[in-house]
Design goal:
The chain is an alpha+beta fold and about 110 residues long. The chain has a single domain (about 5-105), classed as HesB-like domain (Hypothetical Protein Aq_1857, Chain: A, Sandwich). The chain has helices at about 5-15, 65-70; strands at about 5, 25-30, 40-45, 55, 60-65, 75-80, 85-90, 95-100, 105. The strands form two sheets. It has a six-stranded mixed beta sheet with strand order 4-5-2-3-9-8.
Length: about 110
């Protein structure tokens, strides 16, 4: 199961409300790439794709394809704010190693 903290949900809703066109929700994916092999990808979608896992959250839906869900099982998405950077953080128990920049991972 993939979860998202209240803080992250609030940030997604804030960004969704600022979009010039309506979106049905947020797509979360694991894609190949980066120096460690896989990367997280997030983007807004107008509708779910066939075979997507659809997770109803507070005010929007999160769409995850089945291939990505394998790598995201047990993951919590949070939103962190700091002095030097802010952004979404994936707390994924399946990750074995990450790269130095923290943008890619291996399972």
């Amino acid at each position: 199961m993939l979860t998202m903290t209240d803080k992250a949900q609030g940030k997604v809703k804030e960004i969704l409300e600022g979009q010039p066109e309506p979106f049905a929700g947020l797509r979360v994916q694991v894609v190949g790439g980066g120096c460690s092999g896989f990367q997280y990808h997030m983007g807004f979608e107008k509708q779910a794709n066939t075979g997507d896992e659809v997770i109803d959250l507070s005010g929007f839906k999160m769409f995850v394809d089945r291939g990505s869900l394998i790598y995201l099982d047990g993951t919590e998405i949070d939103y962190v704010e700091g002095l030097t950077a802010s952004g979404f953080k994936f707390n994924n128990p399946n990750v074995k190693t990450t790269c130095g920049c923290g943008e890619s991972f291996q399972v």
